[in-house]
Amino acid sequence: MHPHMDDASDTALLELLTAPSPSPTKQTKFSRRDAALDPLMIAAAAASGPHVTRNHYHHDFFPGVMLPQHEGSWDWSKWSPEDSKPRRHLTYVSRQAPRSQHLQPEGTLPLAAKENDCSRDAAPPSPTLSKKRRPSLVASPDSEHKSRAKSTNVSAPAKPVEVKCMARTRIPTPHGPAFLHLYHNNRDTKEHLAIVIDPAQFSDASVSPSVVSAPPIRSQSLDAVWDENETEMDRIIRGAYVGRLSATSRQASTPAPQSPSSIPLAATTTDGNIPSPLVRIHSECFTGETVGSMRCDCGEQLDEALRLISQPIPVPSLSSLQPPGASTIPGRGAVIYLRQEGRGIGLLSKLRAYNLQDLGHDTVTANLLLGHQADERGYEIAAAILRDLSLDQGVRLLTNNPDKVEALTKEGMSVVERVPMVPRSWKSRNPNLQLAGSIAEDEKERLAGATLIGGNSVHGPDLDKYLRTKVLRMGHMLPLWMEDPEQ
Ligand SMILES: Nc1nc2c(ncn2[C@@H]2O[C@H](COP(=O)(O)OP(=O)(O)OP(=O)(O)O)[C@@H](O)[C@H]2O)c(=O)[nH]1
């Protein structure tokens, strides 16, 4: 019972709720069943909250009891014995999946089984599914093997993935300007993003035709005409414009196939000498990117990817007018930012996994103990976004993860090169890596102690352990470096 109620009111409330109904029509020989509520059930509910017993785990006896606005909720602290009329009927709500779903063989269940997932097409996530994935406390090597296999082989519904860029805008970053693209898709309800680095698009159309530049990285779905009633300003506001907006900008872009002249002429020139754009497929990490967590290198990787992509690209013999080897074009490429927090298991599970890690498990085993796979990510949406940006034919992929290369290749992407991402904390501590590394001088002046955008290198025991696990247990393609404890 509610802690603020005295014994007398407790008894009165129990009496009221469990007394046999006065209606003679409802009288049966099982008098206890006549009570509006089963006293045992009430006692169990009071003792253990909405999830009454193990068997009632997925039934919510007081739906939304903490939310006064929720239909069926009742604030028991406001009840008094005199206040017994009119009596509020409690609604009994089952949160269990329908029996038909229980009986489906495993593997035929809808995709949206992850707590952080909510597919547009699939049924809402069912607690029954997560119950099936309750932790087995023994992580067998076999299950780990399956996990790795699965990470590149997410069972896909029949519909091909479609993406649409809903908006694009300029974002100034410590590494230079970027265009942030926000995507919707027909596979999940997440807002996946593409951070496009292509500062050449800011040059006006009067670029000298003698200067060769790469084709602009633009979203086809954004530049498309969505609706014949769409005004120029509608299009501009959603980001379908060329160059840089100003207070006087009034002209939107037009879809490239109908009007190639909408794109600066020089930019449409391709040159076989221009290296393929650098691309990173990055998975969301709230802890690493927003809180600055030093449990992982995600924040640093995002920053490093933007930095690397923004570097000017040397182009051999750009034109006969220029001395060989002396030419560069502005850095170009994209970070595809996927909302697959915690390698797809969601933030809630990731936080639990961290506690398991503090109990001595590594990042892989912690996932397995929670009934998840080591990696539950998929890359179909990333591939669709790359296609929309016309970046599917020839990219240099920034990753150490062989699964990503394999998954993207499977999706039809052409990965012409894998560019490794060496952890900054290794580079800053290892003199050999420092020589080979690419940390610029000016980076030393950046804020130290954070792994956020524009941050510098940090290290700590959690991060060291995480990086080791990625190499030793997840097969990341990185020569392992460990600090010599003797030094
Ligand atoms: N489940 C889980 N996820 C984590 C943990 N630490 C980081 N992550 C998530 O891992 C994702 C990044 O994956 P990583 O394995 O670090 O790297 P990767 O993207 O596979 O590989 P690279 O391309 O080489 O960076 C982000 O979604 C993070 O939220 C952890 O301890 N447990």
TrEMBL record:
Pathway(s) per entry: Cofactor biosynthesis; riboflavin biosynthesis
Superkingdom of the source species: Eukaryota
Any one GO BP annotation for this protein: riboflavin biosynthetic process
InterPro entries linked to this entry: GTP_cyclohydro_II (IPR032677), RibA (IPR000926), RibA-like_sf (IPR036144)
Gene3D superfamilies: GTP cyclohydrolase II
Biased composition (Low complexity): 251-264
Protein name, UniProt field: GTP cyclohydrolase II
Organism: Favolaschia claudopus
Phylogenetic classification of the source organism: Eukaryota, Fungi, Dikarya, Basidiomycota, Agaricomycotina
